[in-house]
User: Fold Nucleoside diphosphate kinase from Reinekea forsetii.
Amino acid sequence: MAIERTFSIVKPDAVARNLVGAIYSRFETAGLKIVASKMLLLSSEQAEGFYGEHKERPFFPHLVKFMMSGPVMVQVLEGENAIAKNREIMGATNPADAAAGTIRHDFAQSIDANSAHGSDAPASAAREIAFFFNENEIFSR
Ligand code: IDP
Assistant:
């Protein structure tokens, strides 16, 4: 299996509840290496641009507002099958549907305050990594 990179966000609800370490620990326990990481408060341009594919959805304004409601952690995760593995340990978008032991089941509060984002495919991973990181900010190990 090839080594992949994926992009991840610890969303504002989880940062606010002091869950950064708990969520990073899930990544590391699953064999994903944190190869880039930073905390930031998203601008409206960043939040709208990042979620541009959802622009026409009814929940878009609320999603953008929520993503700007407090600082987030953005990170690049690297490992075997990293994209699918991260989606698996995050669990379903709606925490009510997320399997026991997943990040969203264990930490999320609602479908918007769902604690984590993870890229869903190689093309979105590449786009999302480049949206937040320069190559010289990523430290493959
Ligand atoms: P994902 O985060 O599991 O990849 P997406 O479909 O890409 O899910 O949606 C992005 C984010 O938009 C979700 O994480 C969730 O917070 C929010 N979202 C998705 N669908 C709904 C909805 O039906 N109502 C409210 N918020 C939603």
